[in-house]
Structures are given as C-alpha cells and as structure tokens.
Amino acid sequence: MIFFIDSADLNEIRELNDLGIINGVTTNPSLMAKEGIVGANSILEHYQEICNIVTGDVSAEVISTEYKDIIEEGHKLSEVDKKIVVKIPMIKNGLKALHYFSKNRIKTNCTLVFSASQALLAAKAGATYVSPFMARLDDWDKKTCSSFEMLSDIKTIYQNYNYNTKILGASIRNKDYIIKCAKLGADVITAPFKSLISLIDHPLTDSGLKKFIEDFKNFKTLN
Length: 223
Ligand code: G3P
What we know:
Elements: E1 2-6, H1 10-19, E2 24-26, H2 29-34, H3 40-53, E3 58-61, H4 67-78, E4 84-89, H5 92-103, E5 108-113, H6 116-125, E6 129-132, H7 134-140, H8 147-161, E7 166-169, H9 175-184, E8 188-191, H10 193-197, H11 203-222
Parallel strand pairs: 1-2, 1-8, 2-3, 3-4, 4-5, 5-6, 6-7, 7-8
The protein binds SN-glycerol-3-phosphate.
C-alpha cells in the first residue's frame, strides 16, 4: 500500500521519509498557506524542496478554476520536477483539464471527490489518482458515515471496468480510517503526520517494553 503524507511541512516530511513509511506527499492550498508559502516563486521553490526529499509523487494543487488558467498553472507546476502530480478539483473545467493532462502524459490527482459518480467521471477523464475525501464526507453526512460505502463503490466500479486510476483515500484523520481504507483496497492513503505516526502505537507494546527493560535491569544487578 502506498502512503503519502498530507503536509507541506518539510520537517514532518523528512521525519516520516527517514522512517521509510511514506512514498510521497500531497498538499493543498490550505496546507501551503499554513507554512506561510505564498507567491508564485516561493510556491514553486517549496515544491522543489519537497521533491528533493521524497522519491515518489508529490501532488501540487492548482488554485485556478477557469480551464485555460488550470492548464497554464498545471504546466508551471509540472515543470518543477517529474515527481509533481497536478492536483485538480472535481469541477467541469477540472474534468476537461484532467483529460488534457492525461493526453499530454502529465500525472493528475482529482481532488474534492465526495461520491462514486464523481470518481467514475475522474477515471473516464483519465485521472492518475482520484481523492475521495473520507472524514469530510462523514462530518457532513453524520447520520450514515458513508465514506466507506463510497470507497467500496469506487473500488468495485474501477475493478468492473479495469480503470487504471488509483484510489487515494484523503481527508484521513486517524488510524482507524487508514486501516479501513487498507481493508477496502484503496491503492493509496494520504494522512497528516499525527495519524501516520500513531500507527506505531499500541499500549501492550509500551507495557511489554517496560517489563523487558525492568527484567533486564534485575539481571544486570545479579552480575
Ligand atoms: O489534502 C486533502 C485532504 O486530505 C484534506 O483533509 O482533514 O482537511 O479534510 P481534511
């Protein structure tokens, strides 16, 4: 399973990359703004720095919504590094841009996807990745918590028609979401640092280690 960190924080990216548990990175305008990255040059430089850390794909999101502007912005982003994946919102102009970039062999990530029908369109337009937003859908649709049904439907549809688009579970807020995505066969998940690092934790690991260390101390005193 492929793991991306959902972050624009270089320290977080380096730390998880050094652990060997992430393959790439996803960002969005909110995450870039959180790091104080504004202005065209600093945005492109920051993406280059991220690409220098990881070996896999780095999703860089366009902020334009007009077709021509999405294409221009997407080209500028993709020229930064061959690891860049142009992240495009699920809107009509976005679909057209996904189709354009697919024909031009530029990788894309269709973002802000909240239904199987949107994911079907993203695959038809030729998206490299589709990002169903899990927790945001459940926040909105509290009664049914339908994100897992959405993911499972997307998986079935893509398998039925052999679409190559990779399912990238996004808006992941805790380890339960990560494990559920893995069980449902998501190709990739993207999650914040906190959720990815929490996969390490188990209380029995902590208590077991404490006991091993205590027992070894006793052994040393015998010598
Ligand atoms: O990057 C997109 C997505 O992962 C955002 O997650 O937690 O802001 O809904 P969240």
